[in-house]
């Protein structure tokens, strides 16, 4: 049976409609044309389009009553007679939503929102927002660093001198360094345990950041709100670092920056109707039950911008704290991938994160610390006495890079497996009965099952006690290592006491390896490296918030000196400085899976006299080799990446 002929008038009005609406909105034009061909659903905005197609002025299109009823039907008569097998019912809601354009008092404002979304989607706007995020996180990182420096100086330099003078004046007794160091770290563990147990929800950690932005698209999970998660995160990190634990502020800075970036994204891109039930139902109707974006955002595109600003915030905060531009951006994007590469969102997030990093370093260098010297401060030339003497042949460089790459992967694998075993011992998984009892007690508001917070406080205090006993014998392993890394880089040729985080001599008098003298033998160097590695593992297993970038740098350097002292290469050879940097890079990269950022951090933090062109090639080779070998050695990793 031949199809019925189209009515010329309807066909003509359809063409007029297409021509006129194209000038207003390209997307609405295509949907309106499809609506007339297939018989989509109506509505205020659809009525206005049909009325305009039939020649009615906009002044007469305020309501559907001003248009003849024959023109406001959901499906035109000639289309309804064609028998489209139920396509009207299926396509109606979709097309109606697509072409809903506000016309006077009708419609739902979709056209205006679409225009706003187009403006928001502009790349220049996301870069501008990233610059703003970089400036905000720079101020936050700078303020945090100033407070942290004040706390470390007060706890570890002014307080022991004050107590020593009081004890001498009162009883003529000198301050016992073992008691002071052990007691201080135990007190820090107690404070972290109390604060952690009193939080309504677990503190946000870098493991949560990695899990949220790893394999699952970032819009599938929202970071917590900064007004509830930011302050506990910074306070716990401040206590941990101030009391000398071997985890650093770099990971909390990544988390804090991500929270700030996401919060700014919520302000810029949040849908005002995101919490309404009607919009949630509309999203389900449009996507066959799947929301078009995560809760709190109007669309998937806007949620992607939230991901970009989260990366930008992490890059800006890390750049502000370490003073190293661009490396913070690469680190944040590599951190959320389980292999040696950038995350899946790096294609679009790289530019905003670099913009935030550049903005952060500009704010720090030009406004907040304009008189501070520019450049790195870790000197590798002091290993040999002169940076100019660092020269190495291509064969020796590759031997050192490959050897340190494999060695760093072994150290990193032992470390993250040790942390996993310690976590199982310190935090055994509760039985299902105990979980149910605790949840029931919490819901009833009783104190039954309330012993969980006591266990948290006790565990963290005991971990602090253990770290304190270890650090009293190896005081050079205190802190996260950035301020005292020069001591490890040159094998303690630079005395520990002369570094930024150096302790008074009265606190290092019981050290098994004198931190003011170079390593005397391979066993002494290896013992310092093992003590530092164990100290980091205890803090990580005890769930103390902190990063492991500089702590692992500090732990790896003594092993390179131990190999040299054992005779693998001569001490005055140019291989040793290259091996020190390469082993540091491989160890850290094998754990965090950030090879490129690790090489950039090490080279950009080196002093101006360090020959980067000699050091960088081996550093890059060992960094990537460390990641590849660690994946062969173990299927498990330090972070849990979402599949």
Layout of secondary structure:
Blueprint: H1 8-22, H2 26-38, H3 44-53, H4 77-80, H5 87-98, H6 110-120, H7 123-170, H8 177-197, H9 206-212, H10 226-242, H11 250-269, H12 277-286, H13 300-322, H14 327-335, H15 346-368, H16 394-426, H17 432-444, H18 451-473, H19 485-489, H20 522-541, H21 549-565, H22 575-592, H23 595-604, H24 612-633
Helix pairs in contact: 1-2, 1-3, 2-5, 7-10, 7-11, 7-13, 7-15, 8-10, 8-18, 10-11, 11-13, 13-14, 13-15, 14-15, 14-23, 16-20, 16-22, 16-24, 18-20, 20-21, 21-22, 22-23, 22-24, 23-24
- Oligomer category: single chain
The mean pLDDT is: 76
Terminal CA distance reads: 54 Å
Helix content: 55-70%
Overall, the morphology is globular
Q: What is the radius of gyration computed over CA atoms, rounded to a whole number of angstroms? A: 31 Å
* Biggest sheet architecture: none
Counting DSSP H or I runs of 4 or more residues, the number of helices is: 24
Number of strands: 0
Order of helices and strands: HHHHHHHHHHHHHHHHHHHHHHHH
What structural category characterises the helix and strand content? mainly alpha
Percent range for β-strand residues: under 5%
Ranges where pLDDT stays below 50 over 5 or more residues in a row are 6-12, 18-108, 271-296, 445-449
